[in-house]
Specification:
Helix content: over 70%
Order of helices and strands: HHHH
Distance between the termini: 30 Å
Largest sheet: none
Oligomer: single chain
Number of domains: 1
Shape: elongated
Length: 85
């Protein structure tokens, strides 16, 4: 990616031309640590969301508590809104 492509407006998210050597250059310049950190953070976030989502689903599905139906309705509305965006 050239400097002109880097500072172009509007931002070009996929470089033209797309070259795999860009990844090799980034690895050579930065090393593996930033890529490992990003991957570790993404995996931990996904696992955390999954575990807490399963616990919330269990609570809403099986346990009886006040405002359970309202909580379920709010959750479904937010999920539908996020999916439509």
């Amino acid at each position: 990616m050239t400097t002109i492509q880097f500072v172009a407006y509007p931002t070009q998210w996929i470089p033209d031309p797309l070259k795999l050597s860009n990844i090799a250059d980034a690895l050579q310049l930065l090393g593996w640590r930033p890529f490992f950190n990003s991957t570790l953070l993404a995996v931990c976030a996904i696992l955390g969301q999954t575990v807490f989502g399963m616990m919330a689903a269990f609570a809403i599905a099986l346990l009886r508590f006040r405002f359970r139906q309202g909580l379920l309705l709010v959750y479904i509305q937010r999920a539908a809104r996020a999916a439509s965006t």
